[in-house]
């Protein structure tokens, strides 16, 4: 089965009400996608391609600066949120068995007023990242509500554990990704743009400038995800799989290198939705398939794997 495409217009960001019938349809479609594939394209969410282009544009202008200019914004240099900031090329390995990923990232993980943001030529960076973060937050909460209904659960089971998105007590992060041109002579053995991994939190919203993402099917083969302008690609992440006792599936995905001689860059934006740090994630079917874990502890362990413990 390829990645389903679902029309979300009935519950898009501008809509106050959704009829029972519309909700029933969304529930059915999302459930099929998330139990069978783990990924879904949502069309007509209310987040427009213009909004996506605006945030991709200013992110690219940040990445194209010399490393010395980006250095002051390095991840781990912000006291109130260790995940906020710039991640340089080859620093992260999403598959720890491979060399560092050939990508750069900027994590908007904190909206705290003490955060120092790029300015000068990048005036608007803070406002653009922050407003996109908040739009993604609204859409995520809508998706989580539909997901809860699809499992016959009270929506509060998920929403009540995502009350602090946008504060430093919640790990939700808007991540701009930039994949620079690849020099095939310098590539290390086994190196990719983004190694095979599944995401850590509850769900991820993904916006891509071009193709390149591959998603693993149940059969084990990887299929190419198309790039559908205006659509948001949403996937189940590991904590949601655990929370739902494997009813919803969090699947491996990756970004391969471009073919030799193809010097095109690639950009994407990922909104990693994470439950509140103190939220205790317990199998919602009452089973004990996985022991309870707090979302913050779980996230820290996963970061230790992808960045190394130091
Ligand atoms: O760049 C992409 O399309 C995917 C990135 C990704 O999967 C991630 O950062 O978790
Ligand atoms: Fe991912």
From TrEMBL:
<protein>
    <recommendedName>
        <fullName>Fe2OG dioxygenase domain-containing protein</fullName>
    </recommendedName>
</protein>
<dbReference type="InterPro" id="IPR050231">
    <property type="entry name" value="Iron_ascorbate_oxido_reductase"/>
</dbReference>
<comment type="similarity">
    <text>Belongs to the iron/ascorbate-dependent oxidoreductase family.</text>
</comment>
<dbReference type="GO" id="GO:0016491">
    <property type="term" value="F:oxidoreductase activity"/>
</dbReference>
<dbReference type="InterPro" id="IPR044861">
    <property type="entry name" value="IPNS-like_FE2OG_OXY"/>
</dbReference>
<keyword id="KW-0408">Iron</keyword>
<dbReference type="InterPro" id="IPR026992">
    <property type="entry name" value="DIOX_N"/>
</dbReference>
<feature type="domain" description="Fe2OG dioxygenase">
    <location>
        <begin position="170"/>
        <end position="275"/>
    </location>
</feature>
<dbReference type="InterPro" id="IPR027443">
    <property type="entry name" value="IPNS-like_sf"/>
</dbReference>
<dbReference type="InterPro" id="IPR005123">
    <property type="entry name" value="Oxoglu/Fe-dep_dioxygenase_dom"/>
</dbReference>
<dbReference type="GO" id="GO:0046872">
    <property type="term" value="F:metal ion binding"/>
</dbReference>
<keyword id="KW-0560">Oxidoreductase</keyword>
<keyword id="KW-0479">Metal-binding</keyword>
<dbReference type="Pfam" id="PF14226">
    <property type="entry name" value="DIOX_N"/>
</dbReference>
<dbReference type="Pfam" id="PF03171">
    <property type="entry name" value="2OG-FeII_Oxy"/>
</dbReference>
């Amino acid at each position: 089965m390829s990645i389903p495409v679902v029309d979300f217009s009935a519950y898009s960001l501008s809509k106050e009400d959704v009829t029972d019938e519309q909700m029933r349809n969304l529930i059915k479609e999302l459930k099929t996608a998330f139990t069978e594939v783990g990924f879904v394209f949502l069309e007509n969410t209310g987040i427009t391609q213009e909004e996506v282009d605006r945030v991709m544009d200013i992110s690219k202008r940040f990445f194209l600066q010399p490393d010395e200019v980006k250095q002051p914004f390095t991840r781990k240099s912000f006291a109130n949120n260790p995940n906020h900031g710039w991640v340089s090329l080859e620093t992260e390995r999403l598959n720890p068995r491979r060399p560092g990923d050939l990508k750069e990232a900027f994590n908007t993980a904190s909206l705290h007023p003490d955060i120092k943001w790029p300015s000068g030529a990048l005036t608007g960076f803070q406002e653009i990242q922050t407003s996109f973060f908040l739009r993604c937050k609204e859409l995520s909460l809508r998706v989580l509500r539909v997901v809860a209904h699809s499992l016959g659960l009270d929506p509060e089971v998920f929403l009540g554990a995502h009350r602090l998105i946008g504060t430093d007590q919640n790990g939700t992060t808007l991540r701009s990704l930039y994949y620079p041109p690849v020099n095939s002579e310098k590539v290390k053995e086994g190196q990719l743009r983004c190694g095979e991994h599944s995401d850590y939190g509850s769900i991820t919203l993904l916006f891509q400038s071009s193709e390149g993402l591959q998603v693993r099917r149940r059969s084990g083969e990887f299929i190419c995800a198309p790039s559908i302008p205006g659509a948001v690609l949403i996937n189940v992440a590991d904590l949601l799989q655990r929370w739902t006792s494997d009813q919803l599936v969090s699947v491996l995905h990756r970004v391969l290198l471009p073919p030799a001689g193809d010097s095109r860059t690639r950009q994407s934006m990922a909104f990693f939705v994470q439950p509140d740090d103190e939220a205790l994630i317990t199998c919602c079917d009452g089973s004990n398939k996985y022991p309870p874990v707090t979302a913050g502890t779980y996230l820290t362990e996963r970061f230790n794997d992808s960045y190394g413990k130091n």
